[in-house]
């Protein structure tokens, strides 16, 4: 008899939306309070935070727009400003927002931010800085650039770490001091890291409940809970949130309540690439009927996976260590580093199959995905598929293509499980 | 002159065979440099032959198993060539992994499937202000030099590097002379020939190319040719890092337009800016890389405008319009494009955009657009 699967929703995650609404509301009203506003791409927003600036985070803004259903109208506004549809949809959200402000277009007001005093162009992905450069050309907004290279080989890491550290001291801190008219606030940076360390430690305890069989929660639950360990870092509200989440997960485990009713998941899936922020419900509905649960992925796992390495007493070193330490996020995106990181996740979370979410407009997480599938299939005998879509742009989503590939994946997993049983 | 041109056509018609034979004839190692900014002079000084990796004219086959269809033409074509074994004559490959995101595809794919004997990655940074950028760039160039020395077992002395820089600078001077002649007499060469002249230099030792160019220039200087009277002068812009489809250039000319100058990578962008003669040749190479013009959207430059550069170029040759050739799925160019075209409009400069795909390309559609563009420009000869 076929099992009817249903998601057991967590109660605590309902608390996230008011928290992120508060965050973005404070940003929207910052200028009214005479506060400086920044826009940041890449993992560079921590520096303006330390200076007390209200700062947006490019990917965080995109996830928020996806969550409040404002993405499509912003993308249409971007088209009006001449953007080509093949360019990064995060980039287009921003050009769309500025176009909407300038033209007075009737856009969801929650998606409209004040224009920044400074754009911190963290060039992590080489394309992330383009919108900052464009707004300088269009509006004259000052740009603070920061080159943050991916690390393709372990042997390159020390010299790149030194380079990034040099840029922070040489350019980032002096510019922020100039814009804010005060010395860089190392004490505040330490405080942010202290809160973050505690929040991320609690979050890591929660991750343990993704390893259980059956899993007590899912990647999607974690995705919507990520803000306190990324763009809301330093906000003390993140600590009680994760404490309550941890408590609920423990209760689930104690009471035998799995993430997927009635008896837990049939397939444990690794999810590669961006979270499809504007389509979370759509994707959940594609996995659930087959008893498949996504449990981990590189992108959500790059947010301070080793909080024990955060040292608030040495804040600048901690920040560069987060990016360029032995487990730094810059080594998880391309080449061998990505393969190693995914291998670790596959092992830790007892994964049955891989779904590589390939964004048609942002290739950051797409790099060598097909070779990653091939390598992991050869090593672990687990299958993988690529699904081609976008994290924000509905024009890039083909339901039938996604359905077919997921179905093929589940059938392959099932087939291999049978072969393994017979052997 | 005709003999030189035929040789150039032969070379660029089948670069695979030409470079393979070159390796045999010269008994030297071939190092493939993924365009656009690998400092070839250092490879040249190491005694090897740097060649600039090109986009093939074949459809993608095996490459589909490694890269998605929404990567740009040269990314997919290079991976396809590599995994099909068509680039086995390359003893080494070098990638500038921070030029654009898609170059990040290569390291794992090449390492796993077809790793050559020599393989190096450069992180050349964007042109941002500050000492950190300059010192990292210089360190990256030193790292590259050491890596080549370790591979070849020979020391690249400052003298050797300076000699290579001189040869490259001479090549730039000769190409500039050809462009100067073209600006004076735009009918001297057609656009495809000009592109082939530049491209052929990317496939052979520059000293050999210099010989070809010297002979070619002698012929061009005395050749009687029209100035393009009655034709509409236009400047093609873009096609960063890869060859445009020859057909597009032919259609431009067949539509009644003429190209007295260009802003293409396989064109004026490649040989722009000589390396200055300094005591420290690596510093001189770094200085060339840090030059902001011709503006490149991969280099993080925002304080000057690409469109301003093009307007200056147009005015110098009395051009009446701009043809933007954007490689499909080239985000640096695509992201810059709205600002570029807006600035042209503000200056009343007519522009048409052609998006170039690697495989499926509707030449009829392009022809129609270009014919309409010519009609738009009709009153502005």
Describe this protein's structure:
The complex is a heterodimer of chains A (423) and B (381). Chain A has 423 residues and is α/β, with parallel strands linked by helices. Chain A has helices at 16-28, 46-50, 58-68, 71-80, 89-103, 130-139, 157-180, 186-211, 219-223, 238-255, 280-287, 298-301, 315-324, 335-348, 369-380, 399-422, and strands at residues 6-7, 37-41, 54-57, 118-123, 143-147, 260-261, 267-272, 292-296, 353-359, 384-389. The radius of gyration of chain A is 21 Å and the shape is globular. The two termini of chain A are 25 Å apart. In chain B, the strands form 2 sheets. In chain B, strands 5, 6, 7, 8 and 9 form a 5-stranded parallel β-sheet that branches. The longest helix of chain B has 27 residues, at 158-184. Chain B has 381 residues and is an alpha/beta fold. Chain B has a domain at 2-160: 3-Layer(aba) Sandwich (Rossmann fold). The interface between A and B is large, with 59 and 54 residues.
Brief digest:
The complex is a heterodimer of chains A (423) and B (381). Chain A has 423 residues and is α/β, with parallel strands linked by helices.
């Amino acid at each position: 008899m076929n099992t009817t699967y249903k998601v057991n929703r967590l109660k605590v995650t309902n608390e996230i939306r008011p928290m992120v609404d508060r965050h973005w509301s404070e940003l929207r009203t910052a200028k009214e309070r005479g506060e400086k506003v920044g826009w940041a791409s890449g993992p560079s927003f921590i520096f303006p935070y330390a200076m007390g600036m209200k700062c947006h985070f490019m990917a965080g803004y995109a996830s928020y727009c996806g969550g409040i259903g404002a993405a499509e109208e912003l993308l249409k506004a971007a088209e009006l400003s001449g953007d080509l549809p093949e360019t990064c949809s995060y980039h287009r959200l921003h050009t769309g927002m500025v176009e909407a402000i300038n033209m007075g277009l009737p856009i969801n007001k929650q998606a409209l931010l004040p224009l920044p005093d400074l754009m911190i162009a963290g060039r992590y992905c080489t394309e992330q800085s383009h919108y900052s450069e464009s707004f300088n050309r269009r509006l004259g907004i000052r740009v603070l650039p920061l080159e943050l290279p991916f690390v393709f080989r372990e042997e390159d890491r020390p010299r790149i770490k030194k380079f990034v550290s040099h840029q922070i001291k040489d350019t980032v801190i002096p510019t922020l001091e100039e814009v804010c008219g005060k010395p860089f606030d190392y004490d505040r940076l330490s405080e942010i890291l202290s809160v973050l360390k505690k929040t991320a430690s609690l979050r890591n305890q929660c991750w343990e409940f993704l390893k259980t069989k059956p899993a007590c929660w899912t990647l999607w639950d974690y995705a919507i809970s990520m803000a306190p360990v990324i763009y809301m870092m330093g906000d003390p509200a993140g600590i009680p949130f994760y404490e309550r989440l941890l408590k609920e997960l423990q209760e689930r485990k104690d009471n035998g309540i799995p993430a997927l009713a009635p008896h837990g998941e049939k397939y444990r899936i690794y999810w590669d690439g961006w979270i499809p922020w504007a389509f979370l419900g759509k994707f959940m509905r594609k996995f659930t009927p087959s008893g498949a649960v996504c449990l981990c992925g590189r992108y959500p796992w790059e947010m301070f996976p080793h909080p024990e390495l955060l040292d608030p007493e040495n804040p600048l070193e901690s920040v560069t260590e987060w990016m360029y330490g032995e487990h730094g996020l810059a080594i998880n995106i391309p080449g061998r580093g990505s393969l190693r990181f995914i291998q670790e996740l596959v092992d830790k979370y007892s994964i049955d199959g891989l779904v590589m979410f390939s964004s048609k407009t942002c290739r950051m997480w797409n790099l060598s995905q097909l070779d990653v599938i091939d390598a992991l299939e050869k090593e672990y005998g687990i299958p993988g598929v690529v699904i081609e879509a976008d994290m924000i742009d509905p024009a890039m989503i083909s339901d039938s293509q996604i359905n077919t590939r997921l179905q093929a994946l589940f059938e392959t997993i099932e087939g291999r499980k049978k072969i393994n049983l017979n052997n | 002159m005709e003999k030189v041109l035929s040789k150039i056509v032969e070379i660029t018609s089948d670069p695979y065979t030409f470079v393979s034979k070159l390796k045999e004839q010269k008994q030297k190692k071939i190092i493939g440099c993924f365009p656009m900014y690998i400092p070839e002079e250092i490879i040249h000084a190491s005694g090897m032959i740097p060649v600039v990796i090109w986009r093939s004219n074949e459809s993608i086959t095996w490459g589909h198993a490694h890269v998605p269809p929404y990567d740009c033409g040269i990314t997919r074509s290079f991976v396809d060539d590599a995994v099909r074994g068509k680039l086995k004559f390359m003893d080494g490959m070098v990638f500038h992994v921070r030029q654009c995101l898609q170059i990040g595809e290569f390291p794992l794919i090449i390492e796993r499937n077809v790793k050559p004997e020599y393989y190096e990655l450069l992180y050349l940074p964007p042109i941002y202000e500050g000492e950190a950028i300059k010192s990292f760039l210089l360190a990256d160039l030193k790292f590259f030099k050491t890596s080549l020395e370790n591979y070849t077992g020979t020391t690249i002395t400052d003298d050797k590097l300076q000699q290579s820089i001189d040869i490259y600078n001479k090549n730039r001077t000769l190409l500039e002379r050809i462009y100067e002649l073209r600006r004076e007499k735009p009918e001297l060469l057609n656009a495809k020939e000009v592109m082939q002249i530049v491209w052929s230099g990317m496939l052979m030792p520059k000293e050999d190319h210099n010989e070809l160019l010297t002979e070619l220039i002698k012929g061009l200087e005395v050749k009687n040719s029209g100035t393009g009277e009655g034709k509409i002068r236009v400047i093609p812009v873009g096609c960063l890092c890869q060859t445009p489809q020859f057909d597009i250039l032919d259609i431009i000319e067949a539509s009644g337009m003429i190209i007295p100058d260009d802003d293409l990578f396989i064109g004026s962008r490649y040989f722009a800016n000589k390396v200055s003669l300094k005591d420290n040749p690596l510093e001189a190479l770094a200085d060339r890389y840090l030059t902001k013009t011709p503006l490149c959207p991969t280099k993080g430059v925002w304080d000057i405008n690409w469109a301003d550069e093009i307007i200056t170029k147009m005015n110098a040759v009395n051009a009446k319009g701009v043809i933007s050739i954007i490689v499909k799925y080239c985000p640096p160019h695509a992201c810059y494009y709205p600002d570029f075209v807006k600035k042209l409009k503000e200056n009343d400069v007519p522009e048409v955009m052609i998006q170039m795909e690697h495989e499926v390309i509707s030449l009829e559609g392009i022809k129609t657009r270009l014919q309409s563009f010519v009609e738009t420009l009709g009153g502005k000869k």
